[in-house]
Write a structure and sequence with these properties.
There is one protein chain. By secondary structure, the protein is mainly α. Helix content is 70%, strand content 0%. It is built from three helices and no strands. The longest helix is centred in the middle third of the chain and has 26 residues, at 18-43.
Length: 56
């Protein structure tokens, strides 16, 4: 986003208050935590002892 803003407005900072910038960063951080947590939960759903016998 910073590169796009740099190309369009010649500044890497978004237009708006620092709260807007912080909100964008916080939203991206929360989205990454949710996506990593969900994928980890799905990957570790199978008990390890059961996964040892599985062959794909």
């Amino acid at each position: 986003m910073a590169l796009l803003n740099l190309a369009l407005r010649e500044t890497p900072l978004p237009s708006g208050t620092p709260a807007v910038f912080g909100g964008i960063l916080a939203g991206a951080f929360l989205l990454s935590l949710v996506s990593l947590g969900l994928s980890t939960r799905v990957a570790l759903r199978v008990k390890p002892i059961d996964a040892i016998g599985l062959r794909e």
